[in-house]
Amino acid sequence: xxxxxxxxxxxxxxxxxxxxxxxxxxxxxxxxxxxxxxxxxxxxxxxxxxxxxxxxxxxxxxxxxxxxxxxxxxxxxxxxxxxxxxxxxxxxxxxxxxxxxxxxxxxxxxxxxxxxxxxxxxxxxxxxxxxxxxxxxxxxxxxxxxxxxxxxxxxxxxxxxxxxxxxxxxxxxxxxxxxxxxxxxxxxxxxxxxxxxxxxxxxxxxxxxxxxxxxxxxxxxxxxxxxxxxxxxxxxxxxxxxxxxxxxxxxxxxxxxxxxxxxxxxxxxxxxxxxxxxxxxxxxxxxxxxxxxxxxxxxxxxxxxxxxxxxxxxxxxxxxxxxxxx
Length: 326
Fold this sequence. Notes:
Elements: E1 11-15, E2 19-24, E3 37-42, H1 44-54, E4 58-66, H2 69-80, E5 84-91, E6 98-103, E7 109-114, H3 130-134, E8 136-141, H4 151-164, E9 168-171, H5 183-191, E10 199-203, H6 204-211, H7 218-222, E11 231-235, E12 240-244, E13 249-253, H8 265-279, H9 287-304, H10 317-325
Parallel strand pairs: 1-4, 1-8, 2-6, 4-5, 8-9, 9-10, 10-11
Antiparallel strand pairs: 2-3, 6-7, 11-12, 12-13
Helix pairs in contact: 1-8, 8-9, 9-10
């Protein structure tokens, strides 16, 4: 479906990195032992943008790629998935980022990155498409764009512009420790914008990292709560997710599927949830609606683990409905 076919409805803008993931053709081997790699588009904010567009909602991506074969390939993939690319810039000097992703036998991942510096790190605030940002009903971002300048300044400027224009701010820190100078720097950087979000999604592993506590204990999770939040969601992998608002809290079960690759599962979840919010912002105050949206998001996350790669595995609405009915 083309961008023009989906030009009506609330817009979600996703900001950050897009890169190439090289995934081994067999699970359970180290990078050194892998004989071949499958090239897959990746980068959490780009995955989220595609997840939203594949479900039929309006989404734009803002970020920077290299003026190279991989950069043009990535933008083509965004466009083919129905994502508005008016906010994407090309860098003539720096290359598009690469990540080698090892898959353990259970589909869990380890990363090795090539980005020193890559194009996504070099986005300047002067290159931001402010017109696009100001159209956003929801502005979504991660933390990788906070690691280095000039991208950090661009990230903060984009957040400020979106908030001033009345957008909801959505934050999935997406912890990638190998990209930060140290675990302490990661914690500090991720928390530096923590209180500005309306919605935060963290995984159970990220709760453990950010708090140093047991992510299954409610008091540990609640130590991450801020009164500016409308919603905090903790994803528990195949077990589903937990949700916390000012008025209510609970758990939504996940779906049992044959997991091949968990890459992009969190992004499929976030994209599915954000398009529900964009269509009805009252979700944060209505527990029944919130649970329905989270069940749908869990279904999308589960489906995405049954195929290798992030963007290729993202479901459309009919696939999600099929799993919900089963």
